[in-house]
Amino acid sequence: MTEFYNGEEKLLVAVDSIIFGFKDGKLKLLIGKRIVEPGAGMWSLYGGFVRINEDLEEAARRVLYQYTGIKDIFMQQVGAFGKVNRDPGDRVVSVAYCALINVDDYDTSLLDKYGLIWADLDNLPEMWGDHKEMINKSLNQLRHQISTEPLSFNLLPDLFTLTQLQNVYEAIIGHEVDKRNFRKRIKQMDFIEKTSLIDKVTSKRGASLYRFNKKAYDSDGEHSFKL
Q1: What pLDDT score does 37 carry?
Q2: H/E run at residue 193
Q3: Within its chain, how far is the Cα of 194 from the centroid?
Q4: How high does pLDDT run on average in the chain?
Q5: Which SS3 state, helix, strand or coil, does residue 48 take?
Q6: Which has the closest alpha carbon to 46: 133, 154, 131, 136?
Q7: What are phi and psi of 128, to 5 degrees?
Q8: Is the separation of the CB atoms in 33 and 111 below 8 Å?
Q9: Strand partners of residue 22
């Protein structure tokens, strides 16, 4: 620290993680109960304070790795939340980050270690402070982006069926889409490749497995996922 800005009031900066996953046909959110005051026992997003030698994104990725065990993860900033009385413990400004992960990649031992659960997004309990506001803003952000960015694939395994892809898409936008139109649109996208593999686990009749070709996606200048 230096002598500059002496006399100015100091405040704490935190990062909060909005971690979405997809399981059992529903969009899930990773939450836990606070173990410290204020608000001990209330359902909460998980986060932490930014360390003096960290950039914001470094702090966010540290927290995400701590609670997911995954390093290569989709993450984006949602926004800053800084109402004066948002945290009765101190003057805290929090920057929220959204992450999308494939639940199958998640280290389930972390659920017990940190007291976490995968909660249904459409049936969340009462949340601590402004965390529900963070969640709603993040979900609205995803709904705006899903028509132009390949977000759904972050929630799926490397190989997926078209039914799984449609379920994820519908879970994000919050309503059903026409199956025939969905599949017609998907087949027009050269970066969603049909493989020779068949899924006989989630589909009794056997469904073709597809993969997202990021190289083909990156080489194509314009994209639209509007379905």
Answers
A1: 94
A2: strand 192-199
A3: 26
A4: 91
A5: strand
A6: 131
A7: -65, 135
A8: no
A9: 27
